[in-house]
Amino acid sequence: MINTLFLPELRELLDSGDAHALREVCTALHPARTAEFVEGLSPGEAWSVLKHADMPLRVEIFSYFDHDHQVAIFESQDRHEVAELIAEMSPDDRVDLLQEVSPEVVQQLLELVPASERQNIERLQAFEEGTAGAVMTTDIARLSESLKVRDALAELGRQAEQLETIYYIYVVDGSGRLKGVVSARQLVSAMGRPQVTLGDLMDTDILMANVHEDQESVADKVARYDLLAIPVVDDDGRLVGIVTHDDVIDVVREEATEDAHRIAAVDPLEDSYMRTSLFTLSWKRGIWLSILFVAALLTAFALRHYEKNLASWEWLVWFIPLVISSGGNSGSQTATLIITAMATGDVELRNWLQVVLRELAMGLLLGGFLGLIGFLAAAVLRWPNISEALVVPFTLLLVVICGTLCGSVLPLLFKRLGWDPALMSNPFVAGIIDILGIVIYMNVAMALLDITSPRGP
Amino acid sequence: MINTLFLPELRELLDSGDAHALREVCTALHPARTAEFVEGLSPGEAWSVLKHADMPLRVEIFSYFDHDHQVAIFESQDRHEVAELIAEMSPDDRVDLLQEVSPEVVQQLLELVPASERQNIERLQAFEEGTAGAVMTTDIARLSESLKVRDALAELGRQAEQLETIYYIYVVDGSGRLKGVVSARQLVSAMGRPQVTLGDLMDTDILMANVHEDQESVADKVARYDLLAIPVVDDDGRLVGIVTHDDVIDVVREEATEDAHRIAAVDPLEDSYMRTSLFTLSWKRGIWLSILFVAALLTAFALRHYEKNLASWEWLVWFIPLVISSGGNSGSQTATLIITAMATGDVELRNWLQVVLRELAMGLLLGGFLGLIGFLAAAVLRWPNISEALVVPFTLLLVVICGTLCGSVLPLLFKRLGWDPALMSNPFVAGIIDILGIVIYMNVAMALLDITSPRGP
Predict the structure, then answer these.
(1) Contact assignment for A321 to B299 by CB distance below 8 Å
(2) Is the N or C terminus of chain A more exposed, i.e. has fewer CB atoms within 10 Å?
């Protein structure tokens, strides 16, 4: 979000070098709003404004800039000044950002960052995209269990500015293993009892995530248990970081978008739509389109197989698209409902029979209703041969039932096989219905009309 | 999530009335895990276990039960005991829950709840579903600006158990208007300076939401500014509640599911898939299926219009489903990409030209590629009349371009008109492509083949 309202005034202040006023600009508003006003400037100008803010505030305003603006500043501004900012940024944000900066600039910048921060960056960069390790941050309050409440609060006060969150305090043993968690709420409640130690207060039944755990499963835990943050441990149980509530919202959004893309037969994009290159985009779409295309090719062979039937009853051709699209639409409705219900935990594998029966009933209801409209339309188009028109409603009823059944069985089957139900369910359903629809249509027609049977294989 | 592992042991403890052991069960684990173990019991048994936990813990374990189990307990257990629990529950959760309990039970329960809590429940119930007022909670720390840091901490310590979140302290004036916010982080950092008051510390540029604001817009603010909670004010600026990070995650999930349903032409369900009645479900699906069906009916009329052309070139019929489904698939890919990109703010209205040009390029690339495969298939099926087969690739190219253009223009247009882009975009795109696909196909065929023009209207 960019607000261009005060750009002329900001440029004037920069030209006149009014340091006092520029400091005012940085401090008067919420950092997120300051960012909106400053972001419309060129990277160089925006950076000049930011330099009037103290480091913690500078980092915060910068963190609200758009990703592209952040990258532009990293690549164009004084390397030493940028490196100072990097040293103060939150560990997870800077790793995300550095991924997009050109490698030679990253190398130059990392040389100027203090060694401890550089190691931290390199360690986080090593985690695979989509794991807890890749989204976690490493700025956490690690305290010893013998610490008294009052001292713990004082220690927190000293560290508060550097920490991503002070809402949980993690108690670790000598080798860094996580032993317990004390919430800031517990600490504040215990202020009246100064002799109490963290060891007395801490919860030892800790909800935690493994560094290699999938980010979706981490987000589920945080959402289910209403946590502000979840500790992340390595395979030896040593505390290595935390995933915080704001990262979880991003993960939830990201996963929902990925599911939506998979449902529409697009391989999920790693980057945003606007930043993905045409080449990547055409690959991620083309691969699924081609698979669907090959499936749809089968319909051409099927129709050629029924050539003679169609020649004797030409009007059957008119309803081919209607039959196919009705089956496809009802199938994609079902598949989407089941996929989203499984994603939110509302439908589980053990409900399979109930789901399939529900969808059978839906298919009867919806197919029956569409068949009725279809019969009226066919009767009008084939007037006065109304008995012929009966082919249409019977076909529609059967095709819609096929659609709802495929749409429910396939996602459940994929889940059972350990695949992502969103993956290919809708495309598969559409492909199956295309070909089944034609076979059903032709066989219903052969049964009801005086029609020659298709030529042999 | 239900864990049935210890059900026999739990039942034994209940039979023997071992109060000490049951207390252990309630306190030893994280409340969420206790809930998993207890939830497999009958409502009466689960309630008997819960009664061994102190009230704050009892409320917390209960809050992790499945909605259906909570409702069953409310409806079957002792009204007085349930009312005690309700009085202690978080204001937003109990209002959500009471919506599902039968009205006569709700009335009996509310009569037993203290008057102040009852008024609170009735006030929250009055807000429209989907607004900030309906998701907010009202347990907040409201303090005066003259309070000193040390006193504020002590006051927080006293209130901590009752509050939904202690991570922001809201400073209000005499008439309840919101004047500023102090984060727990600021408070803890300032502990070394006991003379500082909340008025000195507070931020006065406050991000807030109006009670009537749409929950999606509230969630966007919290996500964008990485907040733990956002204050909610009424039209006079009086602080009435907060929306917390955990509610925001629920809202984000809910909205993503709604979008997915709309994309698949299902009117969003108010309840979960399994709890929605077949009647409601068939209505919410049938209405869109019928609209799509009527659109698809147009294809039948179009094909009748081209009856003579099809009679002279029968093989054209074979490729009708292929043409339509290729256009529909590429169109739904585009529409989904644009809709999700607009939902996350990645594409905005001002990017329209860029988006349309990208999709034009995508259409050329994808249509060209599919046309190539289509040509090979048509050449095989029509061997040796290869020149005839050229109708297929030219049609595919044009139809896929139509698909990507419709898929991008429609969601942008809907957004421009102030409608939800997810609403009907995909169904509309599919319907338009069905009919356009046939018109394009027939006209390409007429241009390339020696074919009679269609009979006049």
Answers:
(1) yes
(2) C
